[in-house]
Design brief:
By secondary structure, the protein is an alpha+beta fold. It folds into two domains: 13-48; 52-135, Arc Repressor Mutant, subunit A. It is 64% helix and 11% strand. The chain has six helices and four strands. Strands 1-2-4-3 form a four-stranded antiparallel beta sheet, covered by helices on one side. Strand 1 (70-72) and strand 2 form a beta hairpin. Helix 1 packs across helix 2 (24-50), helix 3 (53-68) packs antiparallel against helix 6 (123-135) and helix 4 (84-91) crosses helix 5. The radius of gyration is 19 Å and the shape is elongated. The two termini are 32 Å apart.
């Protein structure tokens, strides 16, 4: 499941082998992209391992709101694209821990939740919380 727009192209193995054999520049570009993506994934894994659960949730919510949020009055609102159970799995925490984190963020006024809709009055404050929670 893609959380952002994605374009997917499939190619039969024999066609891919033929293409990379006949066009070394295509092969080189594919290898370069694969290596760059592997580097990006590794950096993300290391970064995530160093963040607290709270920081990872704040980062996920701020990314979601930044990409998919729509202004509604003074708030930015987005629909969660996945269930809370799936979000907990994405963050590597138990659903109960996610519920507690949501409750704390709501109690502090950083977010509001209504069903699958999440909103914030300040994306900058949510981003700052992700950064300050990461440093502590």
């Amino acid at each position: 499941m893609a959380l952002t727009e994605a374009a997917v192209c499939t190619l039969a193995r024999r066609d891919a082998v033929q293409l990379t054999r006949d066009a070394p520049d295509v092969h080189q570009e594919l290898v370069g992209r694969c290596l760059a993506e592997m580097d990006r994934a590794e950096a993300s894994i290391v970064e995530q391992a160093c963040l607290s659960n709270r920081a990872r949730l704040c980062r996920l919510l701020s990314d979601l709101l930044e990409r998919h949020g729509e202004p509604t009055g003074t708030k930015l609102v987005a629909r969660l694209p996945v269930s809370r159970g799936t979000m907990a799995g994405m963050l590597g925490i138990q659903p109960e821990s996610l519920s507690r984190l949501f409750s704390r963020l709501k109690g502090e006024g950083l977010i509001a939740l209504s069903g699958r809709n999440v909103s914030t009055g300040s994306l900058a404050a949510l981003r700052a919380e992700a950064t300050s929670a990461a440093e502590s």
